[in-house]
Write a structure and sequence with these properties.
Blueprint (H helix, E strand, L loop, with lengths): L11 E4 L2 H11 L2 E6 L5 E6 L2 E7 L11 E5 L3 H16 L9 E2 L3 E2 L3 E7 L5 E7 L18 H14 L4 H12 L7 H17 L3 H13 L4 H6 L1 H14 L1
Parallel strand pairs: 1-4, 5-9
Antiparallel strand pairs: 2-3, 3-4, 6-8, 7-8, 8-9
Helix pairs in contact: 3-4, 3-5, 4-5, 5-6, 5-8, 6-8
Length: 243
């Protein structure tokens, strides 16, 4: 007879500074549950959605970190809102670039998610799976159409928002921008906004400004602007961030 047991996975992440990690996670709303000084530095924090443990790795470089964990939640919008509100109280702004940072919510084929990157570069991919009866709410950024530009756009979108690889996303878009391909203006507009968003994530305000200006140079009808409403909303957020 087979016995079915349930379990809980607890990520154990490296960090350069226990104090820096704890300050960040407590600002998010996590509770400190354990701290050890000897024989080695170690700490634990807990939140209703996940428990995390930390140890010190002095040579750690956040930009080179590959540590990540997917956290499945029942209401990703509520978690994202709570984290953003707490971060704004702690930092007087919502960190969207560098370390730490939090991304915006995005609809992917498999889930709705956001990424949380802590001071050590550890990544929490926090998402809510689509229900079986629910159609895939793929972000309106994504346009299903067989072309090289669209394929590049969709690849860059997933690299930026699902894989948290803005540098890879930038390379994909920059390569396709260099090609002389006729592209629908709405898609080009969305691609410029995406590239500006990537530039902000890479802490490159000059590039972000360049692509924002490119969106402003496009001539679009009222209907085309309506089709790109979500991109326009993100564009306005980026303008505010850069200001």
């Amino acid at each position: 007879m087979t016995t079915t047991q349930s379990g809980v996975a607890i990520p154990i992440f490296p960090c350069k500074s226990i104090d820096e990690q704890l300050d960040f996670y407590q600002a998010l709303g996590f509770e400190l549950t354990y701290r050890q000084a000897r024989p080695n530095l170690y700490a634990c924090v807990r939140h209703p959605v996940v428990e995390l443990h930390f140890f010190v790795l002095k040579q750690l470089e956040p930009a080179n970190s590959y540590s990540m964990c997917y956290v499945s939640v029942s209401d990703v919008d509520a978690v994202h809102k709570n984290f953003c509100e707490n971060l704004k109280k702690a930092y007087r702004k919502i960190p969207v670039k560098g370390y730490p940072r939090i991304t915006k919510l995005n609809n992917l084929a498999e889930d709705r998610r956001f990424n949380l990157i802590d001071p050590a570069g550890n990544r929490l991919l926090i998402g809510q799976k689509h229900t079986a009866s629910e159609p895939s709410r793929v972000d309106s950024y994504v346009v299903v159409h067989p072309s090289r530009f669209v394929n590049a756009f969709e690849t860059a979108y997933r690299l930026a928002y699902a894989k948290d690889d803005p540098a890879g996303a930038a390379r994909v878009l920059d390569l396709v921008f260099a090609k002389d391909e006729e592209v629908p203006v709405t898609l080009l507009y969305k691609a410029y906004v995406l590239r500006a968003d990537i530039a902000v994530a890479m802490d490159d305000p000059n590039a972000a400004g360049t692509y924002i200006r490119r969106t402003e140079s496009l001539s679009m009808s009222v209907q085309e602007l309506e089709e790109a409403a979500e991109a326009t909303e993100r564009l306005n957020e980026l303008r505010t961030t850069l200001e």
